[in-house]
Amino acid sequence: MAEVIIPETITVHLGRPNTPAENVTVEFTEYIKNVASNEIYPTWPENAIRANITAQISFALNRIYTEYYRSRGYDFDITDNTSIDQNYVHGGEVYENISQITDEIFNNYLVRTGSVEPLYAQFCDGYLTSCRGLSQWGTVELANRGFSPLDILRYYYGDNITMVYNAPVGENTQSYPGVALRRGSFGDDVLTIKRELNRISQNYPAIPKIGSLTGVYDLETENAVKKFQQIFSLDSDGIVGKATWYKIKMIYASVKRLSEITGEGLALSEVEKRYTRELSLGARGADVEALQYYLAFLGYFYPDLPPIPVTGYFGTLTRDAVYTFQANRGMPVTGIVDANVFMRIEQAYQNAVRDLPPNYRSAIGEPYPGRFIVEGDRGDDVRLIQRYLNDAAKLYPDIPAVTVDGIFGAKTKNAVTVFQRVLGIEQNGAVGPVEWAELVKIGNNL
Q1: Which residues are bridge partners to 170 per DSSP?
Q2: Beta strands in 108-192 (DSSP E)
Q3: Confidence band, pLDDT 50/70/90 cuts, at residue 359
Q4: Distance (Å, rounded) from C-alpha 140 to C-alpha 46?
Q5: What Å distances lie between residue 18 and 13, 15, 161, 204, CA to CA?
Q6: 78 three-state secondary structure
Q7: Which of the residues 30, 111, 273, 274 has the least number of beta carbons within 10 Å of its own beta carbon?
Q8: CB neighbours (10 Å) of residue 9?
């Protein structure tokens, strides 16, 4: 869960969730126009119409944002069943004034103050049915009394309701990253899973708390995932594949009651991204160092790529290398590295490492294995890290010496953390591309 995007389309199941029925994918604006034309009357006061349409937009966005149905294994976003969702009539008539108002406000929605998820704006007609939310016929009376659309909405949902205006529009994409997360994975998706598991553990205390809220999928995270999988009858492998990802999403939304009108709410701090930011001219930091490491390594095999130093500063040399990479791959030549460009560069690096002849290693140093090395890992990569950490300890006395046994235990993690403090980067106790490049440079005196 992250920024709220107004989807270009929405997929509607024409029936109850668990019954066989057709799924139709329609433009989001057309869906709202259809719902509004079937839920309310075009002859109502305009402020009542606007209040109702805003509630309908928020309701639909809540279903999409929380992945209410997709996290339960369905392949649609919402149903046309009025007992649980909204009244959509496929191919139904749309009234002109409702269409015009929807085109004007389709990317406005409701939130509670301090929360980011679209409000689960429950509503009912107010005559035949009643609920804790908005009364559709009641909005007419309030509009006739001079209430503004926002005043009407606050009358029903509370004074802590605010409106988000002009939200961005984009594709309706699922949250699953497309690849399984496991020990050694890194990024905002890992951080999201950690946050959500920690919140779930308040309701399911058998799930161990994850103390290190970084983007590294470490041993703590693996253990928490395994326990979650055990509790919810999933294959307990400690890997967050698609089934585990969406089960976590479903339970997280459930314990926070995100699809209830009185839900706990989702604070900005719970969804903010920490790692997938754009890198461009003038940027500094560990992300830039990782980018430069990948590009510098690729320069051994692609003569068009200009050689660049690993400095952590995105200067003109780094920009020119990005230009070249983008041009060679048929990508827009912007010199800007967003998440997609970074992924393409990282994938090219991993392909180069996989095809690397053994005799190249002595010339360019041991290549980064393409995943974070973390506590619990074993093998030659860990043994190499331990040997190079001991070399680094000769330069930096604060770094404690470790036993070169190929087992990444607590002492190795502590030494890595101290090394990260020396480098001035995030102290997560894991060896990523930045730490690897520095250790290899020290160990091989490159």
Answers
A1: 7
A2: 109-112, 123-124, 134-135, 161-164, 169-170
A3: low
A4: 9
A5: 10, 8, 33, 28
A6: strand
A7: 274
A8: 16
Q: Which two tokens stand for residue 41?
A: 């009357």
Q: Which two tokens stand for residue 184?
A: 């050694």
Helix (H, G, I), strand (E, B) or coil at 228: helix
- 382 CB-near residues (< 8 Å, 6+ apart): 373, 406, 407, 408, 412
Q: Is residue 184 within 8 Å of residue 208, measured between CB atoms?
A: no
CA pair distance 440, 446, nearest whole angstrom:
8
**Token pair recorded at residue 260:** 């209830």
pLDDT, one tens digit per residue, over 244-296 is: 999 999 999 999 999 988 888 888 888 888 776 689 999 887 678 778 888 98
347 CB neighbour count, 10 Å cutoff: 12
Q: Each residue of 333-352: pLDDT tens digit?
A: 999 998 788 888 988 888 88
DSSP 255-310: HHTTTSTT-----GGGT--SS---B-TT-BSHHHHHHHHHHHHHTTT-TTSPP---
**Other beta carbons within 10 Å of 322:** 26
